[in-house]
Amino acid sequence: MITKRIIPCLDVKDGRVVKGVNFMGLADVSSPVSLAEYYSKCGADELVFYDITASAEGRGLFTDILRQTAERVFIPLTVGGGINSLEDFDRVLKCGADKVSVNSGAIRNPDLIPAAAERYGSQCVVISADVKRVDGAFRVFAKGGRENTGMEAVSWIVRCVENGAGEVVLNSMDTDGVKGGFDLEMLSAVCEAVNVPVIASGGAGCAEDFVKLFEALPRVDAGLAASIFHFGEVTIPDLKRALRERGINVR
Amino acid sequence: MIAIIDYGVGNLFSLEHSLMAVGAQVCVTGEERVLREADHVILPGVGAFGDAARKLRETRLDAVLKQIAASGTPVMGICLGMQLLLDISYEFGEHPGLGLIPGEVRPISDVIPAGLKIPHIGWNALRLTARRFSPDPALPHPIFKAVEPGDCVYFVHSFYGAKCADHVIATTEYGAPLTAAVAKDNVCGCQFHPEKSGDVGLRILKAFCEWDGEGA
Question: Is the ipTM of this complex over 0.90?
Answer without folding.
Answer: yes
